[in-house]
Amino acid sequence: QVQFVESGGGLVQPGGSLRLSCAPKGNIFKGKNMGWYRQAPGKQREYVARISRDGDQTMYATPVTGRFTISRDTATDAIFLQMNNLEPADTATYYCNEAPVTSLTQWGQGTQVTVSS
């Protein structure tokens, strides 16, 4: 069963911003490294960003470095992705999940981000 819900996606013009949220059901994220992933049309799902269980360390894929910021609320266990200066290449369905993922990882429905003029 899906244990989290992604939200915050939408249609935005190039250069715009969006803030994605990932809400857990219960305390399923507590004490776990978490990440954001995305899948563009016709492409494989790829890693975007990762955050440590305490929120003190973050990592980013090269294409989003300097534009995206991952964060977490240690009180609510929610995970966020602030996306600035969006580009058409960022168009994808975005997912949150534990980090790292494996071939057995189960995915939620994600949230769609479309960057277009």
Task: Explain how this protein is built.
By secondary structure, the chain is an all-beta fold. Helix content is 0%, strand content 44%. It has no helices and ten strands. The strands form two sheets. A six-stranded mixed β-sheet has the order 2-10-9-4-5-6, with no helix packed on it. It has a four-stranded antiparallel β-sheet with strand order 1-3-8-7, with no helix packed on it. A hairpin with a 6-residue loop joins strand 7 (68-72) and strand 8 (79-83). It is globular, with a radius of gyration of 13 Å.
Amino-to-carboxy terminus distance: 36 Å
Averaged pLDDT: 93
* H-E string: EEEEEEEEEE
Helical residues, percent? under 10%
Largest sheet: 6 strands, mixed
Determine the structural class based on helices, strands and strand pairing. mainly beta
Beta content comes to 35-45%
* Computed CA radius of gyration, to the nearest angstrom: 13 Å
> Reading side by side through the largest sheet, how are the strands ordered?
2-10-9-4-5-6
Query: What overall form do the CA principal axes indicate?
Result: globular
Q: What's the total count of β strands?
A: 10
Helix tally equals 0
Low-confidence stretches: none
